[in-house]
Amino acid sequence: MTKFGKHIDQSLRSLGQQALKIAVEDANINMSQIDAAYIGNAMAGVIWGQESIRGQVVLAGTGIEGIPIFNIENACASGSSAFHLAWQAVATGVHDVVLALGVEKLYHEDKTKTFNAFKGSTDVESLNQFPGGGDDTSQSIFMNVYAREAREHMNKYGTKIETIAKVAVKNSYNGSLNPLAQYQTPKSLNTIMNSRMISDPIRLLMCSPIGDGAAAVIVCSEKFARKYTSNPIYIASSVVLSGRGHREDIDKGKVRAITKAYEMAGLGAEDLDVVEVHDGGASGEIWAYEHLQLCPEGQAGELLLSGETEIGGRIPVNPSGGLLAKGHPVGATGIAQLAEIVWQLRGQAGKRQVRNAAKVGLTHNNGGYLYGDSGAAAINVLTK
Amino acid sequence: MTKFGKHIDQSLRSLGQQALKIAVEDANINMSQIDAAYIGNAMAGVIWGQESIRGQVVLAGTGIEGIPIFNIENACASGSSAFHLAWQAVATGVHDVVLALGVEKLYHEDKTKTFNAFKGSTDVESLNQFPGGGDDTSQSIFMNVYAREAREHMNKYGTKIETIAKVAVKNSYNGSLNPLAQYQTPKSLNTIMNSRMISDPIRLLMCSPIGDGAAAVIVCSEKFARKYTSNPIYIASSVVLSGRGHREDIDKGKVRAITKAYEMAGLGAEDLDVVEVHDGGASGEIWAYEHLQLCPEGQAGELLLSGETEIGGRIPVNPSGGLLAKGHPVGATGIAQLAEIVWQLRGQAGKRQVRNAAKVGLTHNNGGYLYGDSGAAAINVLTK
CA B114, CA B358: separation in Å to the nearest integer? Predict the structure, then answer.
């Protein structure tokens, strides 16, 4: 992956090709060995007018041409969706070596373009379905969703907002150990609780930032991998499910994807050594603990406060810094989560390496919002 | 498919759901039997601000929820690309019954939005790569590509512009037999040759129109199909390849996709009974005759003039009216081509039914433009 951050002088292409080059070199292969490419991007149409053949544009001149190239969208889960189709093509024997690449460039001098792009991740004709409505052009409307989720956990389980804010304390510290993170400064609880209110009770430093960046992975058959590496990382399961609209349980889609991913992998929460979750807002990580069954229902706050999800804990969550600190260039996020898990499983995560030799990791990525549920919920389980 | 045309009062959702309902009823299944959905749309981001989760938005409320939904783009080949991934999922046994749906809404009161969306089907940062440049906001810049292709055929083989115009004569007649076509009035050579010049030598009536519409197909395993129908249509091959940029031969990508599709199907041009080709401009059909090997190189004009590609001829091309008359709501086009071939193979094409009982049909769909080649070339061979 590229460093995530504000890359005003970079284009979608230069960001994408930077990640591609790193992935191809890491895999020790040539561009010409890639049989197909699955490109995730969610917002270049609204922000940059670059729609329709984004992947071909990003890959032009690399030699990755003349093969099947598919442009895949699922909002904040676009990267994971591209990866899922890449995995499926290899797992079913259609292709031997494929590329999954996610790229996003959110910074634009006209901020309304960026905020409008986030609206494009819901039903633009029914923005009034949104908690708080969709007419607030001063911010990403998605923070209204995280605010609602925060209030729900607080009301239902008595969780304090300070506890939710401590997700951001942890992840900002983790980000300070990640040279590719957008923000590398640890933030205190006090600083976070005094940052500007965005959508009550979510404050600025409990929100993932606007950012630019790209990430790429090479997915190949085991036979191919064995020729190039002695320590391949395996995909134990990969699941993408859309949410169920018009239902009471807002998290049904997410939970179903997790259950399916555990079943497919033949593994459970107790087997996980490291996890990257979708903390678009700090409350996202709180709910994820319970959905992933890292703790019983209602006890996510306790799990966080116990320190067990810190890098040195029993089940480290978001050692990369997560979306809150590493950043969230939308289409790149899911693949950057996979990159982090690969590095953690290989023992290449530097200062943020989880303590024990990790053998099983999981990525949890959600995209879009539609009538009370995710547009897409994506879970991957990786093993070494 | 829906009728193609100007549907000002319809939304992406209402168009998409209309096609979905027709497809599901035709297949005699329930919405709940669909295991996954692949949605093709190319331009709703730029035109409508609806990006990221277009498929989920279109399908909301239909009961097609909680399954994998993938949003697929490849410019004018978006529908075919969605179909290809749908086919692949069934062919490899990942899913048993899936939906491929293409939908587009191009008419907007602000025409510059629509024209900008077409720019998004090339590299927006390098529009000067375009023949004639990309700064003409008065029309779809793609007509400059068709104009260049027309000039090439004229210069290389002495083809007359009146011959190329006769593609539009034929297809406007075919469209007059198709109740779902956007234009159902036969046009004379004289009318076409006197229509406004768009990009020399391509005139208005040699261009596919702006339009709205949707089309859907149900793809399933043979075992499943046998339970619901005694006359299934088989997918003999499905190919999507991106073009090769920076190369001299502009059509290399298209020709490679055709060759691969014939090989995969174990069939050749001589086996085809009916073909739908990508006549975004009239010159597109001329070149397609040769790429598909319906005639030797340089003899496309003669083939057209012989009448053999008319509905009553040896190898009818675009009996639906093609993009020129049936219309070209971008993301829907590839799937509408498949619908036409299915109807022709079933003998359900009404007044435009090809003469002999057709057994083998082909769709030819291209998308986007990048440095002298297609962004994506998609070919499907169907048999009964």
Answer: 37
